[in-house]
Design goal:
The protein is α/β, with parallel strands linked by helices and about 400 residues long. Helix content is about 45%, strand content about 20%. It folds into 2 domains: about 5-185 and about 370-394, Glycogen Phosphorylase B (Rossmann fold); about 190-365, Rossmann fold (3-Layer(aba) Sandwich). The chain has 14 helices and 14 strands. β12, α10 (about 300-305) and β13 form a beta-alpha-beta unit.
Length: about 400
């Protein structure tokens, strides 16, 4: 079996049929596959679903593996088991000559740091997909998490983050700018350009979510119920977790909105792109329900933009600022009144809608992940050259 020189380790949401929801790490794996660079992609379950997904790409073809496990001793036991499995998989696959370990969040990056100390990994990249000062309600676990966070970024060769707000945190941690790279949750334009529809329908709205709480979507249901009286043809589609779909369907039926609201199950990112392309407005609804929302970069909003959908986004986050500044959508407060007003405005004001659509595509092009990853892997190659030069001299 051909060895590999890149390993990406991340957490992800995994559905019952073992389909994982795309996250920041998938952007890197897609880039490496396009570049025909062999890699190992390990996705542990973020919600402790008891399964780890593994992808091995040899530069030509991919092999997938599903590794089930029994969750013992709660999250602590699961995270330790993930570390052991990561070590085991890397021992099986990773090339000893040019290893690059990309850890997504401290819980995965710390295993890369240990491998680096053991001289199995010579390059370590710490990737922050999010950030919050209160990760755990347990004070000890929260302190441990932030200790690992600072430890890993300070010992990493390069540090990635999905938002400028997280990069500011890294600067306060003492990380120099030449080690920092902003990699927003944007898709590669080459991956979506051909899917952009020439025929648009602002009456078709879509919302994508991996949340497990129905509360934040109540306002969406209320808004569609309100607007359906004025616009009977309005349609809202949810792409969400099965547990959410079940709860929401019950509410939709109770409110007699079956004609206006539909649901799609979990799907691959490629299928999601094709799905989004059929819609006219993308909704990214955040209600600042937890402190970490301040630091996020909304992947669903970035996906909408790449397919030319004007975005209605709420919440205090960098993506909303980016969309508002570039006039690619509407940034609203998270309440039913403003949501109804925003949807109505995009349906009625055709000129505004067209302007936002053009700007959405422009903004997506500026934030093209492939351009950023070109910069990242250029830095990786430079660091490799420095390492091998020093290694030979010593």
């Amino acid at each position: 079996m051909k060895k590999i020189s890149y390993c990406i380790v991340s957490h992800t949401v995994i559905s019952k049929n073992n389909i994982d929801n795309a996250g920041p790490a998938h952007t890197i794996s897609y880039y490496l596959e396009k570049q025909q660079q062999p890699f190992l992609f390990i996705r542990h379950s973020i919600y402790l679903e008891g399964v780890t997904l593994v992808t091995y790409f040899d530069g030509i073809s991919k092999k997938e593996e599903v590794i089930p496990y029994k969750v013992i001793f709660g999250e602590i036991g699961a995270r330790i088991w993930e570390g052991w499995l990561t070590f085991k998989l890397i021992s099986r696959f990773l090339d000893k000559d040019q290893p690059v370990y990309i850890g997504v969040d401290p819980l995965n990056t710390v295993w890369g740091l240990l491998l680096k100390k053991l001289r199995r990994v010579k390059m370590l990249i710490a990737f922050s997909p999010d950030y919050t000062k209160s990760r755990y309600s347990n004070a000890f676990l929260n302190m441990l998490y932030h200790f690992l966070d600072k430890l890993t970024v300070r010992n990493a060769d390069l540090v990635l983050a999905v938002s400028n707000r997280i990069l500011d945190i890294r600067r306060s941690d003492g990380i120099s700018d030449n080690k920092l790279i902003w990699l927003p949750n944007s898709p590669s334009i080459a991956r979506t350009r051909h899917l952009v529809s020439k025929v648009v329908n602002p009456f078709k709205l879509i919302v994508v979510s991996t949340r497990k709480s129905v509360d934040e979507f109540t306002m969406l249901l209320n808004a569609i119920g309100n607007l359906s009286k004025e616009f009977p043809g309005i349609k809202l589609t949810f792409v969400c977790l099965p547990i959410m779909e079940k709860e929401l369907k019950a509410l939709v039926k109770k409110r007699r909105l079956d004609h206006n609201i539909t649901f799609l199950g979990a799907m691959s990112h490629d299928k999601l792109f094709r799905t989004i392309a059929d819609y006219g407005i993308g909704i990214a609804f955040y209600i600042n329900s937890y402190p970490g929302e301040y630091y996020i970069d909304s992947m669903k909003a970035r996906d909408y933009l790449a397919l030319g959908l004007p975005v209605i986004i709420s919440g205090d986050n960098g993506t909303a600022e980016d969309i508002e500044k570039n006039k690619a959508g509407l940034h609203i407060n998270a309440n039913e009144k403003e949501l109804v007003k925003a949807i109505r405005e995009l349906i009625v004001n055709k000129q505004l809608y067209s302007e936002f659509r053009v700007n959405a595509l422009k903004l997506a092009k500026v934030r093209d992940s492939e351009r950023v990853l070109d910069e990242l892997f250029n830095k990786i190659n430079i660091n490799r050259s420095i390492y091998y030069k020093n290694n030979i001299l010593n």
